Amino acid sequence: MATLEVKRVFKTFEGLKSDRFYVLDDVDFKISENEFICIIGKSGCGKSTLLNLIAGFTKPDNGEILLDGKAIEGPSAEKGVVFQEHGLFPWRTVKQNVAFGLKLAKRKDADQRADYFVDLVGLTDYKDKYPSSLSGGMAQRVGIARALATDPKLLLMDEPLGALDAMTREKMRVEILDIWQKKKKTIIFVTHSVPEAVYLADRVILLKDGQVKLDQHIELKRPRQVRTEAFQNYVHELEQLLTDCDDNVFSE
């Protein structure tokens, strides 16, 4: 569990042509422990840049990011990251991929923890298989298990479902929520899809032109029913604020 503070963060474009000087412009918000936060916005609004700053892969030009009151100085085991491309090692089995970070940390219980998290994502029967034999959804589950295995305080997910077909994506949303509820992690989830954000999030943070334009609590009970009027009202409100987005921003 973790509390995250993003305090007046600025990040400039580096070597890119843009009509804006800052990719992130005075971004400021706080996330409490065990919150599920979705960050939405059109391409180029700063979503992935913000996630990379929180992960510690890059540093802000101004401002600071604090995890449990301590400045984030770089990547660490406190932050697990799941990307759209799963990034599994093709020469390692499912279990070996999940155990990789544990082995690096010289955890004596690496094998037991790997078995536990492989089972958590429903892949026990595939633990000795290689990534080439997995579907896209299975591979993403392995990536999630690998990120969770080292027991990070914060789980960062950068469009992890973006490359999946609609049916697999819907199933994975349910599984991600189930894992979140079981493991009580703080999650920041970047997505292009407004319906996906409303389905998953406690709060939706909308970025536009590098700034936080809305920080919206989603006051809907779980499991959420996407066809209800209340659900669709949230979707409509958020989409209205993104009317200048590309036509395919909300595609599933």
Can you write the helix and strand succession as a string?
A: EEEHEEEHHHEHEHEEH
Q: Name the CATH homologous superfamily of the largest domain.
A: P-loop containing nucleotide triphosphate hydrolases
CATH third-tier fold name of the largest domain: Rossmann fold
Based on the structure given, which CATH architecture of the largest domain is correct?
A: 3-Layer(aba) Sandwich
Keywords: ATP-binding, Nucleotide-binding, Transport
Protein name: ABC transporter ATP-binding protein
GO molecular function, one term: ATP binding
Pfam families: ABC_tran (PF00005)
Short overview:
With 252 residues, the chain is α/β, with parallel strands linked by helices. It has helices at residues 47-55, 94-104, 110-120, 136-149, 166-183, 194-200, 229-240; strands at residues 4-12, 22-31, 36-40, 62-67, 70-71, 79-83, 154-158, 186-190, 203-208, 211-217. The chain has seven helices and ten strands.
Describe, in plain words, how this protein is organized in 3D:
The chain is α/β, with parallel strands linked by helices and 252 residues long. The protein has two domains: 32-59 and 68-78 and 154-246, P-loop containing nucleotide triphosphate hydrolases (Rossmann fold, 3-Layer(aba) Sandwich); 89-151, no CATH class. It has seven helices and ten strands. The strands form two sheets. It has a six-stranded mixed sheet with strand order 6-7-8-3-9-10, with helices on both faces. It has a four-stranded antiparallel sheet with strand order 2-1-4-5, covered by helices on one side. A hairpin with a 2-residue loop joins strand 4 (62-67) and strand 5 (70-71). Helix 2 (94-104) packs across helix 3, helix 2 (94-104) runs parallel beside helix 4 and helix 3 (110-120) packs across helix 4 (136-149). The longest helix is centred in the last third of the chain and has 18 residues, at 166-183. The protein is globular. Residues 245-252 have low confidence and may be disordered.
